[in-house]
Structures are given as C-alpha cells and as structure tokens.
Amino acid sequence: MISQAQVADGANMLRQLQFPVGALITMEDLQDAGREHVLDRLREQEPVTWLPVLGGWLITSRNGAREMLLPKAGATVEVSENMVRASLGKMMLTVDAPAHDRLRAPFERPFRAREAEHAFGDFIRGQADALIDRFAEAGKAELHSAFAAEFAVAVAGHVIGLPLGESAKIDAYYADFAAAMVYDGDPEPVKRADLAREQLDKLLLAGLNAHRSSGAASLTNEVLASSDNELSDEEVVAQLRVVMFGAVETIQASVMSTLLLLLTHPDALSQCLADRSLIPGAVDEAIRLIPPVAFIERWMGRPFTACGVTIDAGEFVGISVIAVNRDPAVFADPLTFDIHRANAKHGLGFSAGEHHCLGVHLARTQTAIAVDKLLSRLPNLTLVAAVPPAGFAFRRPGSLELSWRV
Description:
The structure is a single chain. The protein is 53% helix and 10% strand. It starts with 8 loop residues before the first helix and ends with a strand. It has a single domain (9-403), classed as CATH 1.10.630.10. It is of the alpha+beta class. The strands form three sheets. A five-stranded mixed sheet has the order 1-2-8-5-3. The protein has helices spanning 9-18, 20-23, 27-31, 36-45, 62-69, 83-88, 99-108, 113-135, 143-160, 167-179, 188-214, 219-225, 233-263, 266-274, 279-289, 321-324, 360-377; strands at residues 48-51, 56-59, 75-76, 140-142, 295-300, 304-306, 309-311, 316-320, 382-387, 399-403. A hairpin with a 2-residue loop joins strand 6 and strand 7.
C-alpha cells in the first residue's frame, strides 16, 4: 500500500493557473446529465488536466488513458484513499499483481466468451421471458422496476449459483456500494456501504456453505474445485461480491441505455428489428456512448507522462470514461449513435490492462439477449418518458417509461 501524495497549496494554485479549464470543472460536470459537452471541451483543450475538485489529475484522451491502464505505466490501486476499496473491500479490483492474479485466476475460465453463452444463454433467455410475461399485457411499464433490476439480480444469482433473496434488497446493497465510490469527501455513503457489505457477506457465506454441501453445478463450485483456487471462503466471497457488482450494476445500465438509444434513434431501431444480428453492435455502441462504468481511478507508483504532462509518483489520477469513449482521435463522428461502428469495442467501458472486466463477454451476451427479447415481445415499443443518464462512477438512465401495442 502507498499513501496518496499530498499537494501543497502553492502547487495546487500553480496547477490551476497551468490548467485553467480543469480548474473550473465541478462535480456536477462529472456526474450530471447533459454535462458531457464540458468533458469534450476539456479533452480538446487539456486532455490531461489538474482537477482541484478531485484533488488529482483527470485524463480525457482515450490513448492516454489506455496507456496509463497498462501494467508498464506503473499505476496502482493499492491505496487507502481508493473509494472502490472503501466501498467493496479488498478483492481482485483493489489489489495489484501478484495478489490480483491469485484472486482472479480461479474465476477466469467460466467467464470466457464461449463459456458465457454455452453455460448461461438458455437461463438468460428464460429469465427474460418470465419477467416480460408479468407485464406484457399491461401495455406500459417502467423498465428499471419492471425488468432491469430483477433481471440483473436473478441472472447474477444463477451465474454464481447462490440464492440472493429479494432482488430489491440486493439492488439496494449495490446502490449503496456505487454511491460510496465518489471522491467528494462525504463519509456517510461509506458508512452505508460498510453495512451493506457486512449484510451481503453474511448472505453469500451462508449460501456458499449450503452450495458446497449440495454439490450443484455452478460457477461457485467450479471455482471451489479449480486447481487454481487457493482462496479461503472469505476470499471467495469477496470476489463474488465484485463479480456480482458487475453483474447487477452494469447489466441494469447497459440494458436501459441500449433501449434508450434505440428508441430515440428510429432508423437504428428499424434496422435492429429487421436484422437481430445487429443488436450486439447496438449494445457495444450504447456502452461506448453511455458507459456504465464512467470513472476509473488509479495512483501512480512512479512518474508517468501522458499528452506531454508528467504526473508524479503517489498522485491520484482519474479517467473520464465518458470523455475517452467520445474521443474523435479514435472514434469518427463520436457523438453519433452508430450501430455499425467497427471499433465500438475500443471504448474503455470495461477498463483495460490487468484489471479489465472479468465478465465482459457475459455482460455483452446478457444485454443483447435482454434487448432482443424486449423488442421481440413488446411490439411497437415506444419511449414515453426518460430520466436521462447520470452518475459519477456509474452511469445509467434514471428511468425509462415505455409503452407498446397489446
């Protein structure tokens, strides 16, 4: 563990003069809906900048961000100030190699692309159909409460093979985890995350012991039986906690954002209705434009230079995934929702380097299946109202009110 370097008042003032655009950035610019253009301007003028509001640096250049995430850059997550660690605890995303490799290795094989569809595809389709059956005859619904939240939790429980109880309770735990991952100095969200983590761990540990006794086939038992597994039960639970985070928070966001973009782009929607093979491309493009994970944090283990700016060892560095995924140096016409975009997967919505998302293939598969089912089962699907995407660390529409022909 290293300590975050403290910047003296004089150095802070000097950096604000050197980076005047970054000096004016507010927390609202980083988290509120409709403020994305501010981040675009920041990328154009100061692609690596000093942000007083975060007490650290922000990278908005896609190539600069990806370079910083690769192991050779020397960045670390092992810092007490890491809000992901404060929220979700010590697990694969909050330690560096070799500890990271030890915690992650038993989970690698079940999440390979081929394994995801083969092992979980049928259940995902069945779960989507079962949920849609509940409201299809109503002719209207709010997508998050009627489908996205329960869909994400149910599939997460099936994937790890443990009973998770009421979806609303699990969803609330992960909402508390997400709320704690904001670098604004407020201690209250961290306290709520501590309580949520304690309650969730009890649930997972009890389920783990019961599942081991049953011998049922699941990712969890596969991990426990793996020759790569040297983890204690508490360590397995810690990894399941973060695996579930991606399975719950990311899936809700990607399903809702993809539907929002399709329903507000009639030509893209018509193409997907006519050719369902286009839906995975629409999902990738939606994740690029509205990244479920909108902010990535690191600390420099040694000095690092990006876009001509040198960041000293120990300093805090954030990546605006929103901005890097809209970088015109990588994505032509980046503000356009283009379901045929050949390099949509080059966004950093699933991070990069050793801490890239373990469940990326499952997330894409699950989202595409959900969107396909919703479009197939709900004819003339129409957006009635929406609360636009917002959030600092995690981003999704607040709600989607839909209607369709019965």
